[in-house]
Amino acid sequence: MYRQSLEEDEEMALQSEVDILSQLDHPNVVKLFEIFDEGDFLYLVLELMSGGEVKFFLLKISKAVRQNRGERTLFRKGSS
Description:
Blueprint: H1 8-23, E1 32-38, E2 41-46, H2 54-79
Antiparallel strand pairs: 1-2
């Protein structure tokens, strides 16, 4: 991550996130293995997560939820 592009409050938020992530050990949270601070650049070595991008997973889940809500609405209307 290129630090020069961060505002001061963003730099503080990043440091807070790194501090928290380095202390976490949970199967549902990506593991932070190591941090390399190279002045203008900060490198985070994270656990490899397979299965694709989170955004695609969330889109798939939200579509299923919307469809499920629609089916329940139709069922309620039809059962009256």
